[in-house]
Amino acid sequence: MLTSELEDLRSKQAVESDSRLEQLQDELSKSADLLHSSEASMRVWQNEAQQQKEQLSEEVFELHQSYAKRLQNLRAQQGGEKRAFQAVEDELRQIYTEEVQVCRRNQEAWAEATEAAFTGEARLARMAVEESESAALRHETQVQEKLQEQLVMLKNHLGGEFAPTGLHPASHELFKQLCVSIEAALCDEVRGNPCSELRRTLRRDLKQELRDQLRSEVHSVRRCREASTGSTTGSSARRVKIASRESPPSAVRQELTRRGAALMEAFTAAAEEVLPGRESEKNYENLCPLAYIRF
């Protein structure tokens, strides 16, 4: 009985072992199939990886070549730019050196010209001062000579007691007063400013005014004489009255007196502004005695 049990147990174990072995063989075959498929996939992956590696290697090589070419071009360009920069720098240095030399020469020439200009300017200034002084002396001499001529003319006009021929006695008195006013005005103006334009303008205006008034007076007297000579009746006193009525001196006298007074006021104001004291008048009297001649 034990033997049968052992045999049964052995047969069961053998069956189990066979089934387990079959199961293991199935699993082993599955594992072998899986391994085979894995090896095939691995080979495919290796091939793909190799292809990608080769492709990447080619791309990297191409990139290396392109970068090498670009680097070579950049180096060449940089070398050209460096040579060009060096050439420009050398040219600029040469230009700067030339400009510095020219500037130094110009500074030396300017210093020489400035020194010469200062010397010439001082000489010209001295010449100008001397010329202005001589011109002032000449002008003062001319003014004194003209003043002397005017005073001599006034003296000649005022020398006689009687009126000139053809001039009314009242007009002669007016003329004497105006001559005295002109003399005083000229003396005052020359005392204040010997080189004044106002003196020349005043003298010219007064002389022209006197000429016009005297011409009109003489013309009026002549007309009166012609009228009185042509008449056959009446005495000399009547003719003088007619002449007086024809040529009344009052209007002329009033007008000239008014203008002379205005001019004298202007000259007096100018003299007070120029010469406020009597000290300058005494000094000018010593310098220009002709201005104080009285007739």
UniProtKB/TrEMBL annotation:
Protein name: Uncharacterized protein
Region (Disordered): 1-23, 224-254
Keyword annotations of the record: Coiled coil
Annotated source species: Cladocopium goreaui
Domain of life: Eukaryota
Basic and acidic residues: compositionally biased ranges: 7-23
Coiled-coil region(s): 35-66
